[in-house]
Amino acid sequence: MDDKLWQFVDANGELMSKSYGLPRMTGRVLAWLLVCDPPEQTAAELAEALDASKGAISGATGMLVRSRLVDRLHIRGERADRFRFRPGAWEEQLRDPGLEQSRAVIAMGLDALAGEPAQRRTRLEEIDTFYEWWESRVLSLVDEFQEYKRSKLKRRDDD
Predict the structure, then answer these.
(1) Across the beta sheet with 41-42, what order do the strands follow?
(2) What residues contact residue 60 under an 8 Å CB cut-off, 6+ apart?
(3) CA atoms within 13 Å, Cβ hemisphere of 5
(4) Confidence of residue 63 (pLDDT cuts 50, 70, 90)
(5) Is residue 69 within 8 Å of 89, Cβ to Cβ?
(6) 83, 46 in Cβ contact below 8 A?
(7) pLDDT digit string, tens, across residues 20-51
């Protein structure tokens, strides 16, 4: 991997670590899967490219698969799984599949505090209000993003 590419991969590892509390290697694997050729990589290829242990790659890919940013591919006739950046992953992140479950848990907390003073319920109500607003906006935001992406890609193709 050339120096500029390594700087990008390493910078993404740092960003994910400092901004999101993720292990540095998780950010590095994500960055590499955004730029590698071929776009599907085995764990061994990831370990070699990133000069990392099998355990570090396993932990990073597991986290990225669970977060739905990366797909684990089973290719018929191959023993090793391959990993790739999940097409449409950013749009899926906007939809936040955990939102419904989060609101259900918050509803449990609000129910448990039903007889308590309003001040005690305020923090949960604030979160629930945000989630309610977010749910009402997210579908239109995804539609807006898809239209923006289509127009941007069209302009790029026209150039």
Answers:
(1) 41-42, 82-85, 70-73
(2) 23, 25, 26, 28, 29, 30
(3) 11
(4) very high
(5) yes
(6) yes
(7) 999 999 999 999 999 999 999 999 999 999 99
